[in-house]
């Protein structure tokens, strides 16, 4: 039985946004360990550099580089993709992981509650700008390069259906629903190019700073066990490999891909129906 632990991504070039910590760090480091050359793109370039140092210059590993990037700035996205292609000779994989969540609102100076009419409108707009527009900015500049290469992957990190529609969870739920729509539309736009676009989610609240203090308290009250960022590794490595050729417009849940599963069984177990469906 072949598992994702044996997958190699030698020669592939990837950008992972929000790679300084949490889900992004886990996915970026896993791809480096599998032989890919990976740009760890993040606003916190210092922490991204520390993530790089943990996996760089080791036998069998690809190259790793920390790069400052604010995905809400189109010029930053343009530079990040251009520099990646210049340094590594191309681009094959874009993982749109960077984002802002409920913690961004709760930590704001004007925080009152998460009821939509009481939220800080400036911070509400920040979340939409980062999650929805930032994902578009990165994908927009990466897609032509991927298409020219005849093979590529765009992986959008979203969230569970229950999170998207949970009360007092806008704008985060709103933004992730929009990214699901981006995934489905872009997948159709990319048909026939050799480039695919899919969604990947952990499948629950994850033990990172991205989860707000309120979210962690709610998890404790309900007895919900927080997931670890490593739940994203198996489906991410598979999506980044040639074994997922032709998989387009799909949605995968990390926690359902168990570590001892074979690749075929894991991919089947992790597949979830799209959040948005045609009538």
Outline:
This protein is an alpha/beta fold. The chain is built from ten helices and eight strands.
Question: What topology does this entry show?
Answer:
Elements: E1 13-17, H1 22-33, E2 37-42, H2 45-53, E3 64-68, H3 74-88, E4 93-96, H4 102-106, H5 121-149, E5 152-157, H6 161-165, H7 172-190, E6 195-201, H8 213-222, H9 233-239, E7 251-253, H10 263-270, E8 271-272
Parallel strand pairs: 1-2, 1-4, 2-3, 4-5, 5-6, 6-7
Antiparallel strand pairs: 7-8
Helix pairs in contact: 3-5, 5-7
By secondary-structure content and strand pairing, the structural class works out as alpha/beta
How much beta, percentage-wise? 5-15%
| Span between termini | 39 Å
- Say what the CATH topology is: Rossmann fold
CATH superfamily: NAD(P)-binding Rossmann-like Domain
Helix-strand pattern: EHEHEHEHHEHHEHHEHE
Task: Quickly count the helices.
Answer: 10
Second-tier CATH architecture = 3-Layer(aba) Sandwich
Percent helix range: 40-55%
Average per-residue pLDDT, rounded, comes to 91
What number of structural domains do the residues give?
1
> Can you list the strand order of the major beta sheet?
3-2-1-4-5-6-7-8
Number of strands: 8
Describe the largest sheet.
8 strands, mixed
Shape: globular
Unreliable runs: none
Rg, Å, rounded: 18 Å
Task: Spell out the key features of this protein.
14% strand; single chain; 8 strands; globular; Rossmann fold; alpha/beta; 43% helix; 279 residues
């Amino acid at each position: 039985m072949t598992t994702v632990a044996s997958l190699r991504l030698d020669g592939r070039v990837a950008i992972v946004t929000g790679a300084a910590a949490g889900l992004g760090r886990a996915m970026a480091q896993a791809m480096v360990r599998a032989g890919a050359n990976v740009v760890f793109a993040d606003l916190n370039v210092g922490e991204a550099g520390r993530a790089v140092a943990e996996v760089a210059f080791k036998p069998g590993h690809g190259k790793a580089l920390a790069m400052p990037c604010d995905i809400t700035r189109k010029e930053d996205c343009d530079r990040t993709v251009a520099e990646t292609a210049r340094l590594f000779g191309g681009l094959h994989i874009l993982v749109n992981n960077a984002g802002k969540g409920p913690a961004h609102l709760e930590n704001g100076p004007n925080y009152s509650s998460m009821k939509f009419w009481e939220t800080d409108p400036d911070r509400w707009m920040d979340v939409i700008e980062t999650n929805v527009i930032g994902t578009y900015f990165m994908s927009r500049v990466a897609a032509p390069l991927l298409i020219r290469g005849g093979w590529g992957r765009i992986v959008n990190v979203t969230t569970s259906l229950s999170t998207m529609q949970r009360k007092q969870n806008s704008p985060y739920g709103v933004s992730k629903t929009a990214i699901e729509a981006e995934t489905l539309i872009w997948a159709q736009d990319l048909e026939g190019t050799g480039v695919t676009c899919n969604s990947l989610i952990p499948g629950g609240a994850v033990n990172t700073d991205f989860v707000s203090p309120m979210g962690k308290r709610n998890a404790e009250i309900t007895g919900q066990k927080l997931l670890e960022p490593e739940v994203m590794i198996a489906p991410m490595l598979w999506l980044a490999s040639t074994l997922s050729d032709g998989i387009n417009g799909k949605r995968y849940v990390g926690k359902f891909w168990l570590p001892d599963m074979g690749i075929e069984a894991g991919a089947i177990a992790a597949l979830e129906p799209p959040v948005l469906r045609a009538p």
